Amino acid sequence: MFTKCEICPRKCGIDRTAGRRGRCGTDNRLLVARAALHPWEEPCLSGKRGSGTVFFSGCSLGCVFCQNRAIRDGGTGIAVTPERLAEIFLSLQEAGAHNINLVTPTHYAPLLGEVIRQARAAGLVVPIVYNCGGYENVETLRGLRGLIDIYLPDMKYADAALAERYAAAPDYPEVSRAALREMVEQCPTPRFDRDGMMISGVIVRHLMLPGAYRNSHDVLKYLYTTYGDDIYISLMNQYTPMPGIGEKYPELAVPVPEKDYRRLCAYATRLGVSRAYVQEGGTVSESFIPAFDGEGVDQTREEK
Questions:
Q1: What is the dihedral of CA 279, 280, 285, 288, to 10 degrees?
Q2: What share of the chain is helix, strand, coil (3-state, %, to 5)?
Q3: Which of 169, 153, 149 is nearest to 161 (CA)?
């Protein structure tokens, strides 16, 4: 699949095995920027010990406001073998991770199936979380059936014009809806262990953007009227303006107004949404962005 890459909906057709970089910014090497316990995911994922997050370099969506832009373009990360990645999964489990959380994994999906099987055979028992931007090929997701326990996609845009402006992906609304259908088919019923940690299911995140209340309203309406209580919804107000964003996108140079977020939460209540996570104030901060410094990946650093 890497010789004429069509793993993501961009279907750029690049030969990543020849060292060329696709629209995601990566070739066929597994590039990992960080692997560590993360306390800031939804409570049913982070729990008391943290989610075992593995941040992959590159992104096939590439939103202009991305908080993880240090790794978004594939310029930061350490190349690892599938065998080493399986070891990282096991190390995170040993450190107490409630799950293995694959962050922005889309462009590595065919390799990750092999890695997950290796790790399971070597003793990995915690759930696997597929944490993505929602812009996924259904065919790629089908290749992961039986391997993913929890899907954690975004649904960023119901508005095709916004998707075009911020991600050059006007097909995002239809693509993300088809992908979500496949995810729910694979993990149809939210299940939790006795400690309240999710072991199977789908949580859909939506990051509210400044000046885009109608987009958020339409995303929320679609999610609840389509799936009801078959999914959890995570409404996020943590949008953080990145330095320089206002030069080309002045509307994104400010945080989300608190009144807009309260209005969205009130709308969720009127709809009847009960399986949802919301955020309190104080989430707009670059301190929530981890350091992509090779922690948990760099074996030389571990030896020191």
A1: -50
A2: 40, 15, 45
A3: 169
Which residue in the block uniquely carries the two structure tokens 């057709």? 13
Closest among 167, 171, 176 to 249, alpha carbons compared? 167
- The residue behind tokens 């410094």 is 293
Q: Which residues contact 173 (CB under 8 A, 6 or more apart)?
A: 157, 158, 159, 160, 163
Q: Which residue has the tokens 């004429």?
A: 4
Whole-angstrom distance, CA of residue 226 vs CA of residue 175? 15
Q: Per-residue pLDDT tens for 167-216?
A: 999 999 999 999 999 999 999 999 999 999 999 999 999 999 999 999 99
Tokens of 190: 């939210």
User: In whole angstroms, what is the distance from residue 112 CA to residue 81 CA?
Assistant: 11
Dist CA 268 CA 233 (whole Å): 10
Q: What is the per-residue pLDDT for 281?
A: 66
269-297, pLDDT tens digit by residue?
Answer: 999 999 999 998 656 554 467 778 889 99
Which positions ≥6 away from 179 have C-beta within 8 Å? 134, 135, 136, 137, 138, 141, 153
Alpha carbons 94 and 85: distance in angstroms, whole number: 14
Say which residue the tokens 């709809």 belong to. Answer: 271
Which residues are CB-contacts of 181 (< 8 A; sequence separation ≥ 6)?
138
Enter the DSSP assignment of 98: S
Radius of gyration of the chain (CA): 18
Q: Are 135 and 176 in contact (CB under 8 A)?
A: yes
- Let me know: does 267 contact 223? Beta carbons within 8 Å: no
As given in the structure block, the two tokens for residue 252 are 């994104």
Using CA atoms, how far apart are residues 74 and 228, in angstroms rounded to an integer? 36
Work out the number of other CB atoms within 10 angstroms of the CB of residue 117: 15
